Amino acid sequence: LDVSDRFLLSGGVRYENINAELEDWVGSPFNNFLGLLSGESLPEFEGGSNSASDVVFNAGVLYKASPEISLFFNFAQGFAIPSFVFLTGATDPVEVDVGTDDLLEPEKVNNYEIGVRGTWDSVQFSLAAFYNFSKKGQNLTLGADGFASLNRGRQRNYGVEATFDWQPSDAWSLGTTFTWNEGEGDLPEDDRGWQPLSGLEVQPLKLTFYLENQTTPTWRNRLQMLLVGDRSRAFDEGVDRFKATGYTTFDFISSLEVGSGSLELGIENLFNRQYIPISSQERIENNETRYLAAPGRNISLRYLLRF
Asked: What is the pLDDT of residue 93?
Protein backbone atom coordinates (compact mmCIF):
# COMPACT_ATOMS: atom_id res chain seq x y z
CA LEU A 1 0.00 0.00 0.00
CA ASP A 2 1.58 3.29 -1.13
CA VAL A 3 0.70 5.74 1.65
CA SER A 4 2.73 8.48 -0.04
CA ASP A 5 5.67 8.87 -2.38
CA ARG A 6 7.95 7.95 0.52
CA PHE A 7 5.94 5.50 2.64
CA LEU A 8 5.02 1.96 1.63
CA LEU A 9 3.05 -0.36 3.93
CA SER A 10 2.60 -4.10 3.46
CA GLY A 11 0.96 -6.86 5.46
CA GLY A 12 -0.76 -10.19 5.33
CA VAL A 13 -2.40 -12.97 7.25
CA ARG A 14 -2.49 -16.68 6.53
CA TYR A 15 -3.87 -19.84 8.07
CA GLU A 16 -1.44 -22.75 8.33
CA ASN A 17 -2.36 -26.38 8.85
CA ILE A 18 0.37 -29.01 9.23
CA ASN A 19 -0.16 -32.77 9.19
CA ALA A 20 2.69 -35.25 9.63
CA GLU A 21 2.83 -39.02 9.92
CA LEU A 22 5.63 -41.25 11.16
CA GLU A 23 5.82 -45.00 10.66
CA ASP A 24 7.10 -47.40 13.33
CA TRP A 25 10.90 -47.32 13.47
CA VAL A 26 13.95 -48.69 15.25
CA GLY A 27 16.79 -46.69 16.77
CA SER A 28 19.94 -45.83 14.86
CA PRO A 29 22.54 -48.65 14.78
CA PHE A 30 25.27 -45.99 14.92
CA ASN A 31 23.92 -44.38 18.09
CA ASN A 32 23.24 -47.77 19.67
CA PHE A 33 26.41 -49.60 18.63
CA LEU A 34 27.52 -50.28 22.23
CA GLY A 35 24.25 -52.05 22.91
CA LEU A 36 24.58 -54.04 19.70
CA LEU A 37 28.08 -55.16 20.69
CA SER A 38 26.71 -56.47 23.99
CA GLY A 39 23.97 -58.42 22.21
CA GLU A 40 21.08 -56.03 22.77
CA SER A 41 18.46 -55.36 20.12
CA LEU A 42 17.83 -51.94 18.66
CA PRO A 43 15.15 -49.98 20.56
CA GLU A 44 11.78 -50.05 18.83
CA PHE A 45 9.38 -47.12 18.65
CA GLU A 46 5.78 -46.75 17.68
CA GLY A 47 4.96 -44.18 15.03
CA GLY A 48 1.92 -41.97 14.84
CA SER A 49 0.60 -38.74 13.42
CA ASN A 50 0.78 -35.12 14.44
CA SER A 51 -1.18 -32.10 13.29
CA ALA A 52 -1.25 -28.43 14.19
CA SER A 53 -2.81 -25.25 12.87
CA ASP A 54 -2.66 -21.54 13.61
CA VAL A 55 -3.04 -18.07 12.10
CA VAL A 56 0.13 -16.05 11.46
CA PHE A 57 0.66 -12.43 10.49
CA ASN A 58 3.26 -10.30 8.74
CA ALA A 59 3.63 -6.56 8.31
CA GLY A 60 6.22 -4.15 7.01
CA VAL A 61 6.94 -0.50 6.44
CA LEU A 62 9.38 1.06 3.97
CA TYR A 63 10.45 4.70 4.13
CA LYS A 64 12.35 6.24 1.20
CA ALA A 65 14.53 8.85 2.88
CA SER A 66 15.94 9.78 -0.52
CA PRO A 67 16.03 8.28 -4.01
CA GLU A 68 19.10 6.29 -2.91
CA ILE A 69 18.39 5.41 0.74
CA SER A 70 15.49 3.39 2.18
CA LEU A 71 14.68 2.48 5.78
CA PHE A 72 12.60 -0.59 6.55
CA PHE A 73 10.98 -2.51 9.39
CA ASN A 74 9.41 -5.96 9.06
CA PHE A 75 7.49 -8.25 11.38
CA ALA A 76 6.70 -11.82 10.44
CA GLN A 77 5.51 -14.94 12.22
CA GLY A 78 6.61 -18.48 11.47
CA PHE A 79 4.76 -21.65 12.43
CA ALA A 80 6.10 -25.22 12.34
CA ILE A 81 6.35 -28.51 14.17
CA PRO A 82 9.77 -29.98 15.04
CA SER A 83 11.39 -32.41 12.65
CA PHE A 84 11.08 -36.10 13.51
CA VAL A 85 14.72 -36.64 12.57
CA PHE A 86 16.04 -36.34 16.12
CA LEU A 87 13.87 -39.30 17.19
CA THR A 88 15.80 -41.70 14.98
CA GLY A 89 18.90 -41.20 17.10
CA ALA A 90 17.24 -42.30 20.35
CA THR A 91 19.31 -44.73 22.42
CA ASP A 92 16.71 -45.70 25.02
CA PRO A 93 13.54 -47.69 24.25
CA VAL A 94 11.32 -45.02 25.78
CA GLU A 95 7.77 -44.54 24.61
CA VAL A 96 7.18 -41.45 22.48
CA ASP A 97 3.66 -40.35 21.62
CA VAL A 98 4.08 -38.55 18.32
CA GLY A 99 0.70 -36.89 18.67
CA THR A 100 1.01 -35.51 22.20
CA ASP A 101 4.67 -35.52 23.27
CA ASP A 102 5.86 -32.11 24.51
CA LEU A 103 8.96 -32.29 22.31
CA LEU A 104 6.75 -32.29 19.21
CA GLU A 105 4.50 -29.37 20.15
CA PRO A 106 4.15 -26.73 17.40
CA GLU A 107 6.32 -23.65 17.53
CA LYS A 108 5.37 -20.08 16.62
CA VAL A 109 8.23 -17.63 16.12
CA ASN A 110 7.97 -13.84 16.09
CA ASN A 111 10.58 -12.29 13.78
CA TYR A 112 11.52 -8.59 13.84
CA GLU A 113 13.89 -6.89 11.41
CA ILE A 114 14.97 -3.27 11.02
CA GLY A 115 17.50 -1.86 8.62
CA VAL A 116 18.64 0.51 5.92
CA ARG A 117 19.56 0.05 2.25
CA GLY A 118 21.45 2.34 -0.08
CA THR A 119 21.85 2.16 -3.85
CA TRP A 120 23.97 4.45 -6.04
CA ASP A 121 25.43 3.94 -9.50
CA SER A 122 28.68 2.43 -8.23
CA VAL A 123 27.99 1.72 -4.54
CA GLN A 124 25.39 -0.47 -2.85
CA PHE A 125 25.06 -1.31 0.85
CA SER A 126 22.64 -2.77 3.37
CA LEU A 127 22.58 -3.00 7.15
CA ALA A 128 19.97 -4.92 9.13
CA ALA A 129 19.40 -6.13 12.68
CA PHE A 130 17.00 -8.91 13.61
CA TYR A 131 15.42 -10.40 16.73
CA ASN A 132 13.43 -13.64 16.92
CA PHE A 133 11.52 -15.00 19.91
CA SER A 134 9.64 -18.22 20.57
CA LYS A 135 7.98 -19.60 23.70
CA LYS A 136 8.53 -23.15 22.44
CA GLY A 137 12.00 -22.95 20.93
CA GLN A 138 13.83 -26.03 19.72
CA ASN A 139 17.02 -26.07 21.80
CA LEU A 140 19.57 -28.60 20.55
CA THR A 141 22.40 -29.57 22.90
CA LEU A 142 25.21 -32.12 22.81
CA GLY A 143 25.27 -34.69 25.58
CA ALA A 144 28.34 -36.22 27.20
CA ASP A 145 28.15 -39.02 24.62
CA GLY A 146 28.45 -36.56 21.74
CA PHE A 147 24.89 -37.06 20.48
CA ALA A 148 22.41 -34.21 20.08
CA SER A 149 19.20 -34.01 22.09
CA LEU A 150 16.19 -31.72 21.72
CA ASN A 151 14.71 -29.64 24.52
CA ARG A 152 11.83 -27.18 24.39
CA GLY A 153 11.67 -23.81 26.07
CA ARG A 154 11.82 -20.07 25.51
CA GLN A 155 14.34 -19.07 22.87
CA ARG A 156 15.62 -15.80 21.46
CA ASN A 157 17.96 -15.18 18.55
CA TYR A 158 19.38 -11.86 17.39
CA GLY A 159 22.07 -10.55 15.13
CA VAL A 160 23.36 -8.11 12.54
CA GLU A 161 23.89 -8.51 8.80
CA ALA A 162 25.65 -6.09 6.47
CA THR A 163 26.66 -5.99 2.80
CA PHE A 164 28.76 -3.56 0.78
CA ASP A 165 29.57 -3.54 -2.95
CA TRP A 166 31.63 -1.04 -4.94
CA GLN A 167 32.37 -0.80 -8.66
CA PRO A 168 35.23 1.76 -8.91
CA SER A 169 35.45 1.25 -12.67
CA ASP A 170 33.93 -0.80 -15.45
CA ALA A 171 36.64 -3.44 -14.97
CA TRP A 172 36.86 -3.69 -11.18
CA SER A 173 34.39 -4.56 -8.45
CA LEU A 174 34.75 -5.53 -4.81
CA GLY A 175 32.48 -6.24 -1.91
CA THR A 176 32.06 -7.70 1.53
CA THR A 177 29.41 -9.26 3.75
CA PHE A 178 29.29 -9.45 7.54
CA THR A 179 27.07 -11.73 9.63
CA TRP A 180 26.96 -11.97 13.41
CA ASN A 181 24.28 -13.73 15.43
CA GLU A 182 23.73 -14.95 18.95
CA GLY A 183 20.98 -16.53 20.99
CA GLU A 184 19.88 -17.85 24.36
CA GLY A 185 17.45 -20.45 25.62
CA ASP A 186 15.53 -20.66 28.89
CA LEU A 187 14.55 -24.26 29.62
CA PRO A 188 11.84 -24.95 32.25
CA GLU A 189 13.92 -27.60 34.05
CA ASP A 190 17.04 -25.40 34.17
CA ASP A 191 17.08 -22.85 37.02
CA ARG A 192 20.03 -20.93 35.55
CA GLY A 193 17.72 -18.79 33.42
CA TRP A 194 18.81 -17.65 29.98
CA GLN A 195 21.80 -19.67 28.75
CA PRO A 196 23.73 -19.39 25.46
CA LEU A 197 22.43 -21.57 22.65
CA SER A 198 24.60 -24.44 21.51
CA GLY A 199 26.98 -24.13 18.60
CA LEU A 200 24.63 -26.57 16.88
CA GLU A 201 22.22 -23.64 16.49
CA VAL A 202 24.36 -20.49 16.52
CA GLN A 203 27.10 -20.08 13.94
CA PRO A 204 30.17 -17.92 14.67
CA LEU A 205 30.78 -14.54 13.09
CA LYS A 206 31.27 -14.74 9.32
CA LEU A 207 32.99 -12.21 7.06
CA THR A 208 33.37 -12.54 3.29
CA PHE A 209 35.25 -10.42 0.77
CA TYR A 210 35.66 -10.55 -2.99
CA LEU A 211 37.72 -8.72 -5.60
CA GLU A 212 36.72 -9.18 -9.24
CA ASN A 213 38.31 -7.98 -12.45
CA GLN A 214 36.85 -8.05 -15.95
CA THR A 215 40.31 -8.50 -17.49
CA THR A 216 39.02 -8.51 -21.07
CA PRO A 217 35.48 -8.45 -22.47
CA THR A 218 35.52 -12.29 -22.38
CA TRP A 219 37.82 -13.03 -19.43
CA ARG A 220 36.87 -12.51 -15.77
CA ASN A 221 38.91 -13.25 -12.61
CA ARG A 222 37.69 -13.32 -9.04
CA LEU A 223 39.44 -13.75 -5.68
CA GLN A 224 37.21 -14.37 -2.66
CA MET A 225 37.81 -14.82 1.05
CA LEU A 226 35.82 -16.44 3.85
CA LEU A 227 36.62 -15.67 7.49
CA VAL A 228 34.84 -17.62 10.23
CA GLY A 229 35.32 -16.39 13.79
CA ASP A 230 35.64 -18.15 17.14
CA ARG A 231 32.75 -18.86 19.49
CA SER A 232 33.29 -20.20 23.01
CA ARG A 233 30.37 -18.62 24.86
CA ALA A 234 28.31 -21.82 25.06
CA PHE A 235 31.39 -23.82 26.09
CA ASP A 236 32.29 -21.32 28.82
CA GLU A 237 28.78 -21.59 30.30
CA GLY A 238 28.81 -25.40 30.24
CA VAL A 239 26.22 -25.71 27.48
CA ASP A 240 28.60 -27.14 24.86
CA ARG A 241 31.46 -29.58 25.17
CA PHE A 242 33.33 -27.99 22.28
CA LYS A 243 34.62 -24.56 21.27
CA ALA A 244 34.19 -23.22 17.75
CA THR A 245 37.61 -22.29 16.35
CA GLY A 246 37.66 -19.91 13.42
CA TYR A 247 39.58 -20.06 10.15
CA THR A 248 40.17 -18.12 6.94
CA THR A 249 40.13 -19.51 3.40
CA PHE A 250 40.61 -18.08 -0.09
CA ASP A 251 39.25 -19.23 -3.45
CA PHE A 252 40.15 -18.16 -6.98
CA ILE A 253 37.87 -18.37 -10.03
CA SER A 254 38.82 -17.55 -13.61
CA SER A 255 36.20 -17.66 -16.37
CA LEU A 256 36.80 -17.32 -20.11
CA GLU A 257 34.06 -17.08 -22.74
CA VAL A 258 34.74 -19.75 -25.36
CA GLY A 259 32.34 -20.50 -28.20
CA SER A 260 28.78 -21.00 -26.95
CA GLY A 261 29.82 -21.31 -23.33
CA SER A 262 32.52 -20.52 -20.80
CA LEU A 263 35.63 -22.32 -19.58
CA GLU A 264 36.01 -21.99 -15.81
CA LEU A 265 39.07 -22.67 -13.67
CA GLY A 266 38.39 -22.89 -9.94
CA ILE A 267 40.87 -23.23 -7.09
CA GLU A 268 39.25 -23.81 -3.70
CA ASN A 269 41.33 -23.38 -0.54
CA LEU A 270 43.89 -21.52 -2.63
CA PHE A 271 46.66 -21.56 0.00
CA ASN A 272 46.09 -25.21 0.94
CA ARG A 273 45.27 -24.40 4.55
CA GLN A 274 44.38 -27.22 6.93
CA TYR A 275 41.34 -26.43 9.07
CA ILE A 276 38.34 -28.11 10.67
CA PRO A 277 34.97 -26.85 9.36
CA ILE A 278 32.47 -25.72 11.98
CA SER A 279 30.19 -28.60 10.95
CA SER A 280 32.93 -31.07 11.99
CA GLN A 281 34.04 -29.34 15.19
CA GLU A 282 30.85 -30.47 16.93
CA ARG A 283 31.76 -34.14 16.30
CA ILE A 284 32.97 -35.18 19.77
CA GLU A 285 33.06 -38.31 21.93
CA ASN A 286 31.23 -41.10 20.06
CA ASN A 287 31.16 -38.95 16.92
CA GLU A 288 34.91 -38.29 16.82
CA THR A 289 35.26 -40.54 13.77
CA ARG A 290 33.55 -37.73 11.83
CA TYR A 291 35.85 -35.00 13.18
CA LEU A 292 37.36 -34.41 9.75
CA ALA A 293 39.50 -31.68 8.25
CA ALA A 294 38.28 -29.84 5.17
CA PRO A 295 39.77 -30.76 1.79
CA GLY A 296 43.07 -29.11 0.88
CA ARG A 297 43.65 -27.19 -2.32
CA ASN A 298 41.08 -28.34 -4.89
CA ILE A 299 41.58 -27.44 -8.56
CA SER A 300 38.75 -27.91 -11.04
CA LEU A 301 38.30 -27.16 -14.73
CA ARG A 302 34.88 -27.22 -16.35
CA TYR A 303 33.11 -26.01 -19.44
CA LEU A 304 29.63 -24.54 -19.15
CA LEU A 305 27.57 -24.69 -22.32
CA ARG A 306 24.69 -22.27 -22.84
CA PHE A 307 21.86 -23.32 -25.14
From this structure: 45
